[in-house]
Write a structure and sequence with these properties.
Elements lengths: L3 H18 L6 H6 L1 H4 L3 E14 L2 E7 L4 E6 L9 E9 L2 E3 L2 E3 L2 E9 L1
Length: 114
């Protein structure tokens, strides 16, 4: 049988493991303002789908979280326009010109839709 102390230690350890595995939600504004800071890092964003294009379970969709818009590329099919989506993945950038980034996308690894 577990004693209270052993149970508490296991609970704290499990919470520590699970909390480090999930990235904190980041605003699209922060990603667009400094995409190099988030390049090749796991980030989570959430917002409403404003545009989507898909073919054979691959495609891209754009989300708007109220601070800006971001394109998300996926290999799982695209959500419908108007859907509320939370996506987790890695940020990649295309190129920068005169201090502005073009082609910043999030490659989706996981998604939750409401």
């Amino acid at each position: 049988m577990f004693t209270n102390r052993k149970f508490l230690v296991l609970l704290v350890l499990a919470l520590a493991i699970f909390s480090t595995a999930c990235p904190n939600r980041t605003s699209v504004e922060k990603i667009n303002a400094d995409p190099g800071r988030y390049r090749n890092r796991d980030v989570a964003v959430a917002g409403r789908v404003t545009d989507s294009y898909g073919v054979l379970d691959t495609g891209a969709y754009q989300i708007d979280d109220g601070t800006g818009t971001l394109w998300i590329v996926t290999r799982r099919g695209v959500p419908a326009r108007g859907s509320r989506v939370g996506a987790k993945g890695r940020v990649y950038t295309g190129f920068s010109f005169q201090g502005r980034s073009f082609g910043t996308v999030l490659e989706e690894q996981d998604r939750r839709t409401r």
